[in-house]
Design a protein that fits this description.
By secondary structure, the protein is an alpha/beta fold. It contains 21 helices and 15 strands. Helices cover about 45% and strands about 10% of the residues. It has a five-stranded parallel β-sheet, with helices on both faces. It has a four-stranded parallel β-sheet with strand order 2-1-9-8. It has a two-stranded antiparallel ribbon with strand order 3-6. α18 links the parallel β12 and β13. The radius of gyration is 31 Å and the shape is globular.
Length: about 500
């Protein structure tokens, strides 16, 4: 209304006074003498004024029309985009897990012990959510409790859909659409009597009387605790209680500062890496099916090679053997440029914890006396490399013993198709690769489209050589899974 009032007032001000009052000036008396020159001059002025007024008015309405058209176009664009799938079949399967039975004997059922981390990460990338998920599940395992697993959550609101870059995405994706294993309720191997994971709906049903513990009450008194210290402290704090819910308030049990610091994170590695949380991990059937269906796109194979889905799920990580000849590159684009310079470089941050295993060949080093120019160059090369830097790094990796026999390239990226085409051309110009493909080349179903990051991770996990972004948690989780699966450290590199 304010805009309409201002516009009306502006039109009133620029219109001539006779148009506003609708009054005509009197004709001059006959005695006033000849009036033609005066009338002629006045007519010219009035014509010029009307032309000027009409031009401004026309411009105003044209601009107003363009704005209205743009608004309608955006509205229609949003309405006509197909809504993403909601993965209801996965939700329903989770609710039907056999351990959702109060009559089961201890350590499950009504006498079982449970851990529900209600304040788990949300509205973040899959890499961030996944690393926290693993440690939350490991905490439950170490404290002999059934882990309560939730969705991969973008929004906790009531709507099933959220907007991201003006496109609808699922607000929540069930974890079983992404992963398999003990984390999401599958049984532990024979001989391990740990209780199976359950969903929140069952937790609230079986735990009518639960103990709510705030993370700050446990973590607050600790000064930069390691992951192992946190696990021991939380295990002791929960010992007297059957049903524990971590309060829905910050901080997280394992926060971003822990995951950014290898000296604090990796003290759990010897036990964590050999636990069933890691060793019995697998990707979901949805993700593995996308891998099998796109195998010829990712890395052309022999027709005699069996599909990944043919290997028994009980083999866990061992199912993901390296694919000879495949080089996987993780290249972040889009808003990661802002993150590289305005966050990481400005705060002098280094590689994330799972990207910082001491045995890896590429460790982060930032000289204390480095100039701002050299610092920017350093972060560009390692965090947001351009095409020339990427091609140069690929040649360096190809010249190493681990890089012998590389013949296929897969680029996992969120870059635009035009940028990816330029990168492909540059890679082929520098070396005669048998095959070069990217995330943009995969053929995915609507359900697979929204778990595409997991598909990329599976491909990178199986590459003969992987070159990751040391500042990316997604790269970090690929590195972690490769290390836990016994892939030689020199086959895992960074920019």
């Amino acid at each position: 209304m304010t805009l309409l009032f201002i516009s009306a007032k502006w039109l009133t001000d620029i219109l001539p006074s006779h148009a506003r009052s609708r009054q005509y000036e009197l004709l001059p008396p006959a005695a006033a003498g000849p009036s033609k020159p005066r009338a002629y001059t006045g007519s010219i002025r009035r014509i010029c004024h009307l032309v000027l007024v009409r031009r401004r008015t026309r411009t105003f309405f044209v601009c107003l029309g363009l704005l209205a058209t743009a608004g309608i176009a955006v509205f229609v664009y949003i309405l006509t985009i197909p809504l993403p799938p909601l993965y209801s079949r996965f939700h329903e399967a989770e609710l039907r897990l056999p351990q959702h039975n109060a009559s089961l004997p201890f350590p499950e059922g009504r006498e079982g012990r449970y851990l529900w981390v209600a304040n788990h990460a949300s509205k973040c990338g899959w890499g961030n959510a996944m690393q926290e998920l693993f440690l939350n599940a490991y905490l439950a395992y170490r404290s002999d409790r059934a882990f309560v697993f939730d969705n991969y959550t973008w929004s906790r609101g009531e709507s099933d859909y959220s907007l991201y870059n003006l496109k609808p995405i699922p607000s929540r994706i069930p974890l079983t659409a992404l992963i398999r294993g003990p984390i999401v309720g599958e049984p532990f191997l024979a001989g391990d009597d740990a209780p199976r994971a359950v969903v929140p709906e069952y937790f609230y049903e079986i735990c009518q009387h639960r103990t709510i513990i705030g993370s700050y009450a446990v973590n607050g008194p600790l000064v930069e605790p390691t992951a192992e210290t946190l696990i021991q402290t939380w295990t002791d704090r929960m010992a007297a209680h059957r049903c524990v819910e971590v309060e829905f308030s910050p901080p997280e049990v394992f926060d971003e500062h822990l995951f950014a610091d290898a000296s604090r994170l990796l003290d759990i590695w010897p036990r964590f890496s050999q636990s069933p949380i890691v060793q019995n991990f697998s990707w979901s059937t949805l993700v593995e099916l996308a891998f099998d269906n796109n195998r010829q796109v990712i890395s052309p194979e022999s027709p005699l090679d069996p599909p990944l889905s043919s290997f028994p799920i009980s083999d866990g990580l061992a199912r993901y053997t390296p694919l000879p000849g495949l080089l996987a590159l993780h290249i972040r684009r889009g808003d990661f440029q802002i993150h590289c310079y305005d966050v990481l470089a400005s705060r002098s941050k280094g590689y994330t914890g799972f990207n910082s295993f001491p045995s890896l060949p590429d460790n982060w080093y930032l000289p204390k006396d480095i100039s701002e120019h050299d610092k920017t160059t350093l972060y560009t090369r390692h965090c947001f490399p351009d095409i020339d830097m990427i091609v140069q790094r690929v040649e360096e990796v190809r010249a190493t013993p681990a890089g012998r026999g590389l013949s296929h390239v897969y680029v996992m990226t969120n870059a635009s198709p035009s940028w990816v085409s330029k990168l492909k051309a540059a890679l082929r110009k520098n070396y005669e690769w048998t095959h070069v493909a990217s995330s943009r080349d995969l053929f995915l179903t609507p359900e697979q489209k929204y778990v595409a990051q997991a598909i990329d991770m599976l491909i990178a996990q199986r590459a003969q050589v992987f070159v990751g972004n040391g500042f990316s948690t997604l790269s970090g989780m690929v590195v972690m899974l490769r290390m836990a699966n016994g892939v030689p450290p020199d086959a895992t590199r960074h920019w």
